[in-house]
């Protein structure tokens, strides 16, 4: 892992985040597939296509280097998943990490869940700065000593050593998913979590790996009747009985586990009727929801589809209370986006700590922020040129046809191979992490 960049900043004029901020650009060993802060934001975990997890830790405040506060440095790197082969189905199982979720800290160690398409693992990440020395039956290199040479008994002692961070797999939750896992979510009871694939959602206890409960199953008896798949699922942040899942038809179902063991009948069903004037061949594809997130307050849910982000009030099922256009200029380009498969890209979305701002990605390494109170929005770009020391991220504008102003970029020159699918927002501060292929960018408010 190499590091570059020093300080750069989140843009100002007309932006929701109106402060300068230092930034950090880290080149990842492989394409980043997920990004997640822990509950205090001091740790940031990323997963990649090669099955690795890299954890970054925020630099502690130090009196002589106050400007270094906020820098995230590599804390631990480990291989979470390996490529496998399913001999029964003759299928390769990729090692790519689809999702990472942190567990709240309960002792000196950190715990996180990571998943690929089929298997969820619980990892323990702990520090070691002492090592035992002076065993009787083996020497310092671990070789057995000749018993005839042992003439006296020693008491082993602990000696300080360089800090070592170890990652150990504590539990492996396997063989419960026939389809690809798209989501994992830790319940607020901290005893259970769920894993969702295209057609089913399972509930697990952290202590039990050989058994899970199926809580949603939408698989039709005849697979030819399949019209809808599950795309994302999440537990309510405070009510351990409630969860939501979204579908490829643009709908969201809220389920209550108290009503029955199998939550096939939803408690609430959120759907916006389609505007008939906008109907096209692509309507169904672009209405598929790629991400669903509860607000920290638990009052709202946010969904991302191909062109928009929507905010729904849990108390209103027939339409979203807010709809934000992420890149409406692509509406006329859907045909070519279908041909190059981009229309199937799965963009995620995140809330800031106070639920007042939402962020999601787009193409050309652009990402968007929407301020829900002022209704202002901004487009920013994550690029190496932008992460020069103390640079300020300038808002970007895309122009559609007509005359292009000097600082604008034409919709025809957008690079569709550069996409921001995964982002994360620090739970209590204005620090964001943006994954752009194999670069990780961290932007933050300037310290003063
Ligand atoms: C997040 O990580 C930090 C940094 O090491 C740790 O101190 C904190 O307890 C963690 N927070 C939670 C809620 O797990
Ligand atoms: C799971 O493992 C435990 C302990 O080994 C065992 O008691 C239990 O019967 C197993 N459950 C199933 C469903 O296999
Ligand atoms: C219909 O399309 C227009 C732009 O062509 C867009 O502004 C509007 O939000 C769309 N309506 C819906 C319900 O998506
Ligand atoms: C986002 O939430 C954090 C935490 O509540 C808050 O400090 C910050 O000001 C919010 N950001 C914006 C731009 O409102």
UniProtKB/TrEMBL annotation:
GO terms for cellular component: protein phosphatase type 2A complex. One of its GO terms (molecular function) is protein phosphatase regulator activity. The keyword Repeat applies. InterPro entries: PP2A_PR55, PP2A_PR55_CS, WD40/YVTN_repeat-like_dom_sf, WD40_repeat_dom_sf, WD40_rpt. Gene3D superfamilies: YVTN repeat-like/Quinoprotein amine dehydrogenase. SUPFAM superfamilies: WD40 repeat-like. Keywords: Repeat, WD repeat. It comes from the Eukaryota. The keyword Repeat applies. Belongs to the phosphatase 2A regulatory subunit B family. PANTHER family: PROTEIN PHOSPHATASE PP2A REGULATORY SUBUNIT B (PTHR11871). This is Serine/threonine-protein phosphatase 2A 55 kDa regulatory subunit B.
